[in-house]
Amino acid sequence: MSNTRLPGWLSASREFLIPLLALLVLMAVWEASARLFAIPEYLLPSPSRIVEDMAAMGGQQLGEHMVATLRTVLFGFFLSIAVSFPLAVLISSSRLAADAIYPLLVLTQSVPKVAIAPILVVMLGPNEMPRVIVTFLVAFFPLVIAMTTGLLAVPSELIELARSCRASKLQELFRVRLPFSIPFIFSGLKSAIALSVVGAVVGEFVAAERGLGYLITSATAFFKVPVAFGAMLVLALLGIVLFQLIVVAERVFFPWAAAEERR
């Protein structure tokens, strides 16, 4: 009995079509429930009402809020990469450094970011820098852990082979440890980009003049609940798009690492 195979284009787009179909079903159930049970819009607005209010706000205004949040997310994300890589290399290369740095990393994560954000605003002023730092603090910890785990997960046989070929520490890092740790690094990058969106919104809740987080707080203050829901959905969409960009980058530049993760 022969197996029925899906067409190539359908098989390739399966990962996109199934979540999209599930989302459409969810929206349809949401819309029907809001209308059938006459749920007040200040409790749970229907998707059609959300779209209507967001359209009335204007694309230019919504775009300005999106760009402001996206800029904070990307600044914080790339800053987390710039700091996490040298920290991971230092931790993985020295037991003494690991013992000294790990408690400090845990300390940065034990303090709620909502408590840090107002202090940063007082120290640095009501500009974008406090929001970027909050985003960085939220995103960099899982990235450091993932990078360190990957650098330490290299089989000892590969390290011994590199050293028998008289490879320097730098060659060992870039030719052995880093290629082996690519799946770990991209796993950390995916977590970091998702958390960057959360960190940016936390910063905007505390002090911002624009951004999707600011839009949520200002809309709820004036009981414009559909607009707040719309901003929340845009945030979710932004997080999904950024996450998928990391996935695509991994599959394009490191297809073997993406195949390893799917096992």
UniProtKB/TrEMBL annotation:
Subcellular location: Cell membrane
InterPro entries cross-referenced by the UniProt entry: MetI-like, MetI-like_sf
Keywords in alphabetical order: Cell membrane, Membrane, Transmembrane, Transmembrane helix, Transport
ABC transmembrane type-1 domain location: 66-246
Gene3D superfamilies per record: MetI-like
Transmembrane regions: 73-92, 104-126, 132-159, 180-207, 227-254
Topology of the protein relative to the lipid bilayer: Multi-pass membrane protein
Domain of life: Bacteria
Major localization class: membrane
Family, per entry: Belongs to the binding-protein-dependent transport system permease family.
Protein name: ABC transporter permease
Organism per entry: Bosea minatitlanensis
